[in-house]
Amino acid sequence: MPKFDDKGLLCAVVVDHASRAVLMVAFMDAEALAATRATGLAHFHSRSRGKLWQKGESSGHVLEVEEILVDCDQDALVLSCRPAGPTCHTGAPSCFYRRLEGDVLQPVKT
Question: What CATH code is carried by the domain that includes residue 60?
Fold first, then answer.
């Protein structure tokens, strides 16, 4: 089973189930993992708000979880998901829509 850190969290990397593109990174606690497993929809722990949140609860852009992978140290997860719309709160398909080139952030061309 996953091993949570001293704050009760672990890192969760979300990838697109079809393309394998990295969509976002968030944190999960035991409650978020349990809610994700129970509903099939990605839930996370908001460190800033200190509470559980379901991805897409206000936008409708939920993440349907197809598979949960656990790394060798059991302290990080990869959620393979089918997104129902853009994943990033900016409206971008992925939160990783910029690349670092020198000292400048440049948009990723899709």
Answer: 3.10.20.810
